[in-house]
Amino acid sequence: MSRDVREVGGAWRRFQRHSFPPPSPDLAGYVARYWIVSWDYAEPYRQLIVPYPNVHLAFQDGGATISGVSSKHQFKVLAGRGGVFGVAFRPGCFRPFLRAPVSSITDRSIDAREVFGSGLPESPDVRAVERFLREHAPEPDAKAEQAARIVAMIAANPQITRVGALAAELGTNVRQLQRLFAEHVGIGPKWVIRRYRLHEVTERMAAGAELDWAALAAELGYADQAHLARDFKALFGESLTHYAERC
């Protein structure tokens, strides 16, 4: 599929506005950031959405939706004028609100009223949404915080490429780690590791580095280049070589 000309050279910035306010300190244990997006398109535009291991609460057009972690990229069609106010929860930290395994909403969205009931902010902004979250704040959950710390550890350490090695470093076993992630993150530790390592690949491309794909696949813990290419396309919506050509 050819790229939309409105993506080339960051041209989409003429049509969209983004801001990412941080949460107040008392909510930072649950919320990673807020995200506010507005757009103005004369013709429909297919926006690529690349997944991270966050659950999102999004307010749009008078309603609110909770989206679980997506295992692959998605497209959202933006048309006319519109906007969304979103809450990105820290990985692992939506479980206390959901009161159910976060894997139960992986790759799907639900009406926010199923979790929070009535009383959702009608005019969402940071102040209104934070007041709402404080009213629904759950009891601290040590397991949720543990999961969040492990995800942060994966994100920060490029040397983590295999679940077995991570489990050993944490003093646990693979099965226990998988259960923790299914319950609190919503997706497995292998996916999270691959997600952050592939993000680093895009950063190398953007820096103009010459990449040996076979060597890179081995470095990232893949059996071969084909498996690396498959995972990359699932997350970013295009091939490694096509992405590299645009950098």
List keywords for this structure.
DUF6597; DNA-binding transcription factor activity; Arc Repressor Mutant, subunit A; alpha+beta; transcription; single chain; 247 residues
Shape: globular
Placed side by side, the strands forming the largest sheet appear as: 1-2-5-3-4-6
Radius of gyration: 19 Å
Task: State the share of residues found in helices, binned by percent.
Answer: 25-40%
**Series of secondary-structure elements, N-terminal to C-terminal:** EEEEEHEHHHHHHHHH
How many helices does DSSP assign? Answer: 10
Task: Estimate nothing, just give the exact number of structural domains.
Answer: 2
Lay out the secondary structure.
Elements: E1 16-19, E2 31-49, E3 56-60, E4 63-67, E5 74-89, H1 95-98, E6 109-111, H2 113-116, H3 126-135, H4 142-156, H5 163-170, H6 174-184, H7 189-206, H8 213-219, H9 225-236, H10 240-246
Antiparallel strand pairs: 1-2, 2-5, 3-4, 3-5, 4-6
Describe the structure.
Keywords: DNA-binding, Transcription, Transcription regulation. Pfam families: DUF6597 (PF20240), HTH_18 (PF12833). This is AraC-like DNA-binding protein. This protein is an alpha+beta fold and 247 residues long. It has two domains: 5-135, no CATH class; 142-246, Homeodomain-like (Arc Repressor Mutant, subunit A, Orthogonal Bundle). Helix content is 39%, strand content 21%. The protein contains ten helices and six strands; from the N terminus they run βββββαβααααααααα. It has helices at residues 95-98, 113-116, 126-135, 142-156, 163-170, 174-184, 189-206, 213-219, 225-236, 240-246, and strands at 16-19, 31-49, 56-60, 63-67, 74-89, 109-111. It has a six-stranded antiparallel β-sheet with strand order 1-2-5-3-4-6. It starts with 15 loop residues before the first strand and ends with a helix. The mean pLDDT is 92.
